[in-house]
Amino acid sequence: MKVVAITACHTGIAHCYMAADRLVDAARILNIQIKVETQGAMGIENKISKREFDAADHIVLATEISPAESDRYQGKPVCQVSVQEAINHSIALLKKFK
Hints:
By secondary structure, this protein is α/β, with parallel strands linked by helices. The protein has helices at about 15-30, 50-55, 85-90, 90-95; strands at about 1-10, 35-40, 45, 60-65, 80. Helix content is about 35%, strand content about 30%.
């Protein structure tokens, strides 16, 4: 199973990176393939390509703001959650896709 995720928050200093780390850790525990893009103070990091979005089984947006370049995943089903939910409930979030 392939999951791609974008994390983004207002200040982009800590929480989007914490959410990204928690999602990666949860995916490792659940044996799920994941790539997480962060959109924070440093801009877009670990950018997910259109091809990677197209190949994904599931897309997670853990955001407090509208993510940049949203045209990359148009037409795909998206699971929208808060950054805080991704931080606090990452395993439960990803278990929904198993």
